[in-house]
Specification:
Radius of gyration: 17 Å
CATH topology: TIM Barrel
Order of helices and strands: HEHEHEEHEHHEHEHEH
Pfam families: Ala_racemase_N (PF01168)
Strand content: 15-25%
Family: Belongs to the pyridoxal phosphate-binding protein YggS/PROSC family.
Helix content: 25-40%
Shape: globular
Number of strands: 8
Domain Alanine racemase N-terminal: 3-221
Modified residues (N6-(pyridoxal phosphate)lysine): 25
Structural class: alpha/beta
Number of helices: 9
GO molecular function, one term: pyridoxal phosphate binding
Number of domains: 1
Bound molecules: pyridoxal-5'-phosphate
CATH superfamily: Alanine racemase
CATH class: Alpha Beta
């Protein structure tokens, strides 16, 4: 099937409240343009330099999401244009995003990445680290970032019960954060739960996802 057909067939299965991020990492601009022509406006990349190159070449009504692990020293290369950073997992990174956003005279939306998988290798905060980040003075003082939700990746496994357990766990942390929001200005905008990829997005939606990051089912294997 073509990229446009893949895209439209996935979109037709998504509930209205679920946002589709088309994950276009490693794919050429021509492939992204095919998705663009079919109506897609949100693209996800996992390398800042690659995202910046595509941003320069492509129409300016595209929203660019950084879904990969972010190195602090590279934030400046996307601060001008990035729409949402999914993988924020430390106060230090958040402070750098805040600083670069300030330089560009804007507020950058961020998701905090939570570690839900069994694998040690996946990035993210645990619940304790999340709580201490949110209650720190440094966090309260940042004016140029906005936490709009959470992101997580399930363990890479065929075991659906395990994936469901991990997604449900993330959803419960998300619900807790939304409750907290009433008491913290910085959390007023928490509404996005980014979970689910090509292999597990249906399960993720059943578990409460509001944003799915889908690459290979749209653009083919990498
Ligand atoms: C690559 C990637 C995806 C998309 O994965 P697919 O299996 O190709 O859909 C989603 N989220 C993150 C963080 C990724 O790095």
């Amino acid at each position: 099937m073509s990229i446009a057909k893949n895209l439209l067939s996935i979109k037709s299965t998504l509930p209205e409240h679920v946002t589709l991020v088309a994950v276009s990492k490693t794919k050429p601009v021509a492939d992204l343009m095919e998705a663009y022509e079919a109506g897609q406006r949100i693209f996800g990349e996992n390398k800042i330099q690659e995202m910046a190159e595509k941003w320069e070449q492509m129409p300016k009504d595209i929203q660019w999401h950084m879904i990969g692990h972010v190195q602090t020293n590279k934030v400046k290369f996307m601060a001008q244009f990035v729409n949402l950073i999914h993988g924020v997992d430390s106060l230090k990174l958040l402070q750098e995003i805040n600083k670069q956003a300030q330089k560009n005279n804007r507020v950058i939306d961020c998701l905090l990445q939570i570690h839900i998988a069994e694998e040690e290798t996946k990035f993210g905060l645990d619940e304790e680290e999340l709580a201490s980040l949110l209650s720190s003075n440094e966090f309260q003082e940042m004016k140029n970032i906005r936490i709009v939700g959470l992101m997580g990746m399930a363990t890479f496994t065929d075991n659906k019960d395990q994936i469901r357990k991990e997604f449900t766990h993330l959803k419960s942390i998300f619900d807790g954060l939304r409750k907290d929001a009433s008491s913290k200005d910085a959390l007023q905008c928490v509404s996005t739960l980014s979970m689910g990829m090509s292999g597990d997005h249906q399960l993720a939606i059943e578990c409460g996802s509001t944003m799915v990051r889908i690459g290979s089912s749209i653009f083919g294997g990498r």
